[in-house]
Specification:
Blueprint: H1 3-20, E1 55-61, E2 70-78, E3 86-92, H2 98-105, E4 113-120, E5 125-126, E6 132-139, E7 153-154, E8 164-174, E9 178-189, E10 199-207, E11 211-212, E12 220-221, H3 223-237, E13 244-248, H4 250-258, H5 262-275, E14 280-282, H6 292-297, H7 301-314, E15 324-326, H8 333-341, E16 346-350, E17 368-373, E18 376-383, H9 385-393, H10 399-416, E19 425-428, H11 438-448, E20 454-457, H12 459-465, E21 472-474, H13 486-502, H14 508-520, H15 528-546, E22 549-551, E23 555-558, E24 562-571, E25 577-585, E26 588-589, E27 602-610, E28 613-622, E29 626-635, E30 639-648, E31 655-665, H16 670-694, H17 708-711
Parallel strand pairs: 6-7, 10-13, 10-19, 10-20, 13-14, 15-16, 16-18, 17-21, 23-31
Antiparallel strand pairs: 1-2, 2-6, 3-4, 3-8, 5-6, 8-9, 11-12, 17-18, 22-24, 24-29, 25-28, 25-30, 26-29, 27-28, 30-31
Length: 712
């Protein structure tokens, strides 16, 4: 059925994509979002850990506290004998800039020390789910500390001015052995005025899927990737009231939909249910990550349209759409214009794509008009790189610490302009391969549901709720270059288009799979050699489909001057094929008009002659395994000669099958017979005249015979 070659080529493409796919996206199994057990990796933010030393981890904490409240922490002391270890707490003054926040995230203490305390780990309350519980009462100018705990945090602030983000360093020590390990977390004090707008946060969750499965017709998702997807799905579904934007890679969703594995079907069902929840937005993008400028530079601008069309189609089960294009890298005015023609008039782009003003500035918290020159503009929002780093840290052993660090980072942005009456907002998008774990997602979404400083929104809500800045910003200059195998992709697209005109609706899955393979070769995350391999896999797959149609190379014997010659076409594919059948030779004549009756396979027969060659053609519908076309022809000579037989796509440009048929003519033409008869008549006349001259009639009657006497 044409399947083996197609399956092997598609599997090769899947293996190529697997080699370059981000490993952090659906790529590793992590604990379920609902799990509260201690995690093994160590959360380190400062000081480091001695080899073989006990691990200090942050398992949970209060994301913020208000007047009269206490901060609750749950610490993991992996491998530490509680009877011999001590824990130190040091609180620093509130941070005033995000650069200072970045320093503390790297482990450096910044600001004035507000207080410190050391307690024996054995005096802390063991937590039933693992670790130890620590209570930190908070004293502020707004309210005195309530209750007691291992350490009282005195914010040393006047009433109404205590709001902010306070670094809190936690150190694990052994008697006489110094600090073994430490971490830096944050006490967020929230007491916002009633008339203050909360900071909007549009968190985008990109979902990609490493594909594999050698020898399979459809690329398969690894079980570990599906496990991680299930855990992420559970974490996001558990917080259905927190608005969230999903950005699934269409090729991954298409692989799940095409797979026959129940495991993949379950994963797809989970995604469909997640996308159907209220306050969920699904962004539609290209089928695979592509660089619009690279496509344009390679002369493949039309492929961007194909990418978007297929991307929207693949995400139809998830209701994917929207007008926001996520820009992974540099962008130019030409690609902005191309995207706008496809309906994308909003851009989410890195800060590096925008020309920055001189001097220090606050965090950009409004959409803005982006000018690319030549009259090309778009509404854009910067993706926040610091928050992206927080999300990237949430993919490993620092899952929970990274989650609370991100919440503290958001609070710091809020406190840059705490009394703003106009809404402000941020968009966070993790970088490729840095998707956070389910524990991170569960922690952040759970906190955002009731956060007094930050309100989660979808990407569309960010653009509509937050006013556009009055000032226009300029697009940073960028050059276009491409290493794509442009000619191979262009030729492949032309051949695939022609193939699609030659097959019926039953071949739609095959055409779609071939299209997916060709689009996948344009993945900007692949190296040039991998892109070449992906195109080669597509070419092999298409050739495999074409090999399922063939024309039998028979030897045909003609025993008369004219005969009806059968041409046999065989088909192994499970779908119908149609095309233009052409038979050409220089020693035959094809009768035209009603004389031609090629049978039910062909319609609209026609005959043409040029330069001594005759051609018969018709539109052939190949619907059976064996199909016969009967062509009337007359040989112009005896002996063996060849006919060229070709089946091409209806639109032209693609040969579906071709061969040469040998014709052995054993008949004599009328002209030859006439000449032979004439020659025989001439010969007979010549023979007759010769005899006539030698022996004319009556010659012997006039000769006198001599008499005997006369002889004497």
């Amino acid at each position: 059925m044409g399947r083996p070659a197609f399956a092997l080529a598609l599997a090769a493409a899947g293996a190529t994509l697997l080699a370059a796919a981000p490993t952090g996206a659906w790529g590793a199994s992590r604990p379920s979002a609902s799990s509260k057990s201690p995690v093994a990796p160590t959360d380190l933010a400062a000081g480091g850990s001695t080899s073989g030393a006990p691990a200090l981890t942050l398992l949970s904490q209060s994301p913020w506290v208000g007047p009269g409240q206490s901060m609750q922490l749950r610490l993991g002391l992996g491998g530490a004998p509680a009877t011999s270890m001590s824990i130190s707490f040091t609180l620093f003054s509130h941070l005033t800039s995000r650069s200072a926040f970045a320093e503390t995230a790297g482990g450096t203490a910044v600001g004035t020390t507000l207080g410190s305390s050391t307690v024996q780990a054995s005096t802390l309350t063991p937590d039933p789910q693992g670790g130890v519980d620590v209570t930190v009462p908070v004293k502020s100018g707004d309210a005195p500390a309530a209750g007691t705990g291992a350490f009282t945090a005195d914010l040393d602030c006047a009433a109404g001015s205590c709001g902010g983000v306070y670094p809190l360093r936690v150190q694990l020590s052994a008697p006489g052995g110094g600090v073994r390990t430490s971490l830096m977390t944050y006490l967020v004090y929230a007491n916002p005025p009633a008339d203050t707008q909360r900071l909007r946060l549009a968190m985008v969750m990109p979902l990609s899927l490493p594909l594999g499965g050698a020898g399979r017709a459809v690329p398969q998702a690894q079980d570990t990737a599906l496990d991680t997807l299930d855990n992420l799905d559970a974490a996001m579904s558990a917080h259905s009231t927190a608005p969230l934007t999903l950005y699934p890679q269409p090729s991954a969703v298409a692989a799940l939909e095409a797979s026959s594995r129940p495991r993949a079907k379950t994963a797809l069902t989970g995604l469909e249910a997640l996308s159907a929840q209220p306050d969920r937005q699904v962004l539609a993008g290209p089928y695979v990550p592509v660089d619009p400028d690279a496509l344009a530079a390679a002369g493949l601008g039309s492929e961007l349209t194909q990418q978007v069309r297929r991307g929207v189609q693949a995400l139809a089960p998830l209701r994917g759409g929207g007008h926001t294009w996520v820009v992974p890298g540099p962008i130019t005015a030409s690609s902005m214009s191309a995207l706008q023609s496809l309906g994308y008039d909003r851009l989410a782009l890195p800060v590096s794509d925008v020309v920055q003003g001189g001097g220090p500035s606050l965090t950009i918290t409004q959409p803005f008009t982006l000018s690319a020159g030549r009259g090309v503009t778009a509404t854009a929002v910067e993706t926040d790189s610091e928050l992206a780093s927080d999300m990237a840290a949430g993919s490993g052993g620092t899952t929970f610490l990274a989650a609370y660090r991100m919440l503290a980072d958001l609070a710091l942005v809020y406190y840059e302009q705490p009394n703003a009456l106009s809404p402000r907002g941020l968009l966070v998008l993790p970088s490729a391969g840095a998707l956070p774990g389910p524990g991170f997602v569960d922690t952040v979404l759970g906190a955002l549901g009731t956060d007094p400083l930050v309100a989660p929104v979808t990407v569309d809500e960010l653009f509509t709720d937050v006013p556009i800045a009055t000032s226009t910003r300029r697009l940073a200059s960028a050059s276009s270059s491409s290493s794509l195998p442009a000619k191979q992709i262009r030729d492949g697209r032309a051949r695939l288009t022609a193939f699609s005109t030659a097959v019926d609706a039953a071949a739609s899955p095959v055409v779609r799979s071939l299209d997916d393979m060709l689009l996948s070769s344009e993945n900007s995350q692949l190296h040039p050699a991998q892109q070449q391999q992906a195109v080669a896999a597509f070419t092999a797959a298409l050739s495999g489909e074409l090999n399922s149609v063939s024309i039998r190379a028979d030897t045909i014997k003609l025993t008369s001057t004219a005969a009806k010659v059968p041409i046999t076409i065989t088909k192994q594919a499970g779908y119908g094929v149609s095309g233009v059948l052409s038979i050409t030779g220089d020693k035959v004549v094809f009768p035209a008009g009603a004389a031609q009756d090629p049978g039910p396979v062909c319609r609209s027969p026609s005959v043409r002659s040029s330069a001594g060659r005759s051609t018969f053609s018709c539109v052939a519908a190949i619907g059976h395994a064996t199909n016969a076309v009967y062509v009337d022809m007359r040989a112009r000579a005896t002996g063996d000669f060849r006919l060229a037989v070709t089946l091409t796509s209806p639109s032209g440009g693609l040969v579906l099958a071709s061969t040469h048929v040998t014709v052995h003519s054993m008949s004599t033409s009328l002209v030859a017979v006439g000449l032979s008869v004439a020659a025989l008549l001439v010969l007979l006349v010549w023979w007759g005249r010769t005899l006539w001259r030698r022996h004319p009639p009556g010659r012997g009657a006039h000769v006198r015979r001599p008499q005997p006497s006369q002889v004497a």
